[in-house]
C-alpha cells in the first residue's frame, strides 16, 4: 500500500509506530494488521519520526533478528510482550 493512500487515525498511527519499535513484533504482524510491508513501514516511520529517531529505529531493526519471523529462534512463540496491551482506566 502506498504511504500516500494510507489513512490511519491518530490512534492507529500511534499503535503502528509502537509496534514498529517493539522488538518482538515482527514485520509480518505489521503487514497483517496494517497492510504495510517493511519498505512502506520505513517510509511511514521516516515521515512521522524525527530524523535522529528514525536512524535509531533503523539501527535497532537491523540488529534485531526477531523482527523477521524467518530469522527468529523457534523458541519464541509469541509476537508481543505480555505487558504490551495495557488497559487504561
Q: Give the N-to-C terminal Cα separation.
A: 35 Å
Category by helix and strand content: mainly alpha
Mean pLDDT: 80
Order of helices and strands: HHHH
> Unreliable segments (pLDDT under 50, ≥5 consecutive)?
none
- Count of helices? 4
How large is the radius of gyration?
Answer: 13 Å
Can you give the helix content as a percent range? 40-55%
Main sheet characteristics? none
Description:
This protein is mostly helical. It has a domain at 10-71. The protein has helices spanning 10-21, 27-34, 38-48, 51-63. 12% of the residues are buried.
Task: Give keywords.
globular, mainly alpha, about 90 residues, about 50% helix, 4 helices
What's the SSE blueprint?
Blueprint: H1 10-21, H2 27-34, H3 38-48, H4 51-63
Outline of the structure:
The chain has about 90 residues and is mostly helical. The protein has helices at about 10-20, 25-35, 40-50, 50-65. The termini are far apart.
Amino acid at each position: 500500500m502506498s504511504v500516500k493512500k494510507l489513512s490511519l487515525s491518530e490512534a492507529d498511527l500511534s499503535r503502528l509506530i509502537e509496534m514498529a519499535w517493539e522488538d518482538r513484533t515482527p514485520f509480518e504482524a505489521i503487514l497483517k494488521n496494517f497492510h504495510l510491508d517493511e519498505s512502506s513501514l520505513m517510509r511511514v516511520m521516516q515521515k512521522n519520526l524525527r530524523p535522529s529517531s528514525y536512524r535509531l529505529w533503523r539501527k535497532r531493526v537491523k540488529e534485531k533478528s526477531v523482527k523477521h519471523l524467518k530469522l527468529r529462534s523457534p523458541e519464541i512463540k509469541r509476537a508481543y510482550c505480555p505487558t504490551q496491551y495495557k488497559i487504561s482506566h
